[in-house]
Amino acid sequence: MLYEINEKALELESRGKKIIKLNVGDPDQSTPHEIIETAYEAMKRGETKYSFAAGEPWLREDLANIHCVSPENVVIMPGSKWAIFLIMYLLMKNGENVVIPSPHWTSYELIAKSVGAEIRFLRTEIDSNWQIDTEKLEELIDKRTRLLILNNPNNPTSKVVDKKALEKIVEIADARGITILSDEVYANISFVKVESILGLSHKHILINSFSKTFGMTGWRIGYTIVQKGLADRLVKLQQITLTNVPVFIQRAASKALENMNELANKMREDYKRRADLASKIFSAARLKFTEPEAPFYFFPKCINLDSEKLALDLLDKGVAITPGTAFGQYREHFRIALTVPDEEIKPALNIICEALE
Fold first, then answer.
1. Helix, strand or coil for residue 11?
2. How far apart, in Å, do the first and last CA atoms of the chain sit?
3. Per DSSP, what are the bridge partners of residue 182?
4. CA distance 142 to 129
5. pLDDT tens string 3-25
6. Facing residues of 147 across strands?
7. Interacting residues of 341 by C-beta distance below 8 A, sequence separation 6+
8. Of 111, 118, 120, 105, nearest in space to 151 by CA
9. Which end of the chain is more exposed for a tag (fewer CB within 10 A), N or C?
10. pTM of the predicted model as reported, rounded to 2 decimal places
């Protein structure tokens, strides 16, 4: 339903209807001017040719220094989804299974299905603050389990996995011989400290992106950090498919890293202010929700709610949200993304609350 609602919202907009789009995690902030200028200057210099399938050595070295790994472990990708797809394509064999804590980002499920993997969902609940039950995790793992996907911080709950829980999860994965794929695209702008998977073990896989931290969603650049053997296989696949991420985009990404702290702090401050406003409004409406620990999302619950019907009804009122069914068996939940200008947030949230009365 995530993509269906977005298509309906775009269709209504094309007909002239004003839609406040709280359904997509696409930051409304523009890409910083200095990042755009860096790409422009690189294009004028002629950095528009074929290049390294693994990514430019200078960008891989920058990222390796940030994550305390070797550049040979870093592969530059056209966004995190492509990285996740290629990794699952290479690691998952027919009949093997992947464990995914739920609620979960829609693409994990769709990618797993596309490569023929069996999916085992590990359900989490709002009443337990979305904590991963490690006993249930162990029960889901068998000899055909190949991969565990963590989204830390999580989309749609904005929940961060605490360090003790993550340590236990890594301990289980190592003991059972499975690989963790940790998608950390919101980590740099999290409101609380995020323990990276690489801080506990370099045996597992990190996925990250420039999209959320720097307002670069449409630039399509991310990266993965993996062991060298898998990195080599990923590079070979990139060689025969997309060839390379454009060099001028990699120049822009390198410029973003130069100013990462400043830009990430600004993004974090903007979304913390918005999150505080949403918390105030939802609390007044007596909605059940957990306080977000990272941008951009809220995932409230209403007893007996049909969130798919709510999402369709709200489109008529000029607000787009995503029903909880887009993220697993969570019909009584819905997700909002605070990725619209400040002046649109309060009116949109008031419309939602009124529709729930």
1. helix
2. 23
3. 150, 206
4. 27
5. 888 898 989 999 999 999 999 99
6. 98, 179
7. 28
8. 105
9. C
10. 0.95
